[in-house]
Amino acid sequence: MSPLDELRQALATLDRESAAATAGPWEFGDRQSVAGVMPDLHGEGKCAYCHYGEPSWAGKRSINGTRMLAHVHTRPEPWWDHGIFAWREDGSVLVVNDTDEYGYMTKPDATLIVNAVALYRGVVRDIIADAVAAGPELAYAHGAALRLARAINT
Ligand SMILES: [Zn+2]
Question: What is the pTM of this model?
């Protein structure tokens, strides 16, 4: 396989894996507060967290087995300061890795994974895409891109 083909293959792998995984952004700790809209308790169209400000998402969600109007409120700092969380477009929060049963991942591990996902989808992809766009002659000069491509292709 030519170096340019290796780069193209790595780019296709990056794009395929990135598209299949949770879009994110992935974050360390959970900053989302989710609650159902309960007018009788909190006022018309309000949830238990509306006193913090406007919801970052509003729609219908299943909460404790009931599909209902719901809000997501996003805080600047995590409520839950371990594990990796990602917010889906439908307002649900995906726990990427955490479990009460087996324990919590360490903060350094979670931080590394969150940063690695961002690098993988950002800088690594850009380096390889630039090398592919440069064409066959210049692609040979992109040693770093080829090393990345070979790591991805193995
Ligand atoms: Zn609310």
Answer: 0.62
